[in-house]
Amino acid sequence: MEITVDLTQDGLAMIFRDYQVLMLKYLWRDAGDSRPEADNRELWTEVNKDLEPKGVNRPGASRASIINTGRRFAEEGLWDFREVAAKGGHHRIYYAIMTEQEFWKMVTGLVVEKLPEISVNKVGIHSVDDEDGEHYKEITINDTKEYGRWTQTVTAITILKE
Question: Among 105, 133, 137, 110, which Cα is nearest to 124's?
Answer without folding.
Answer: 137
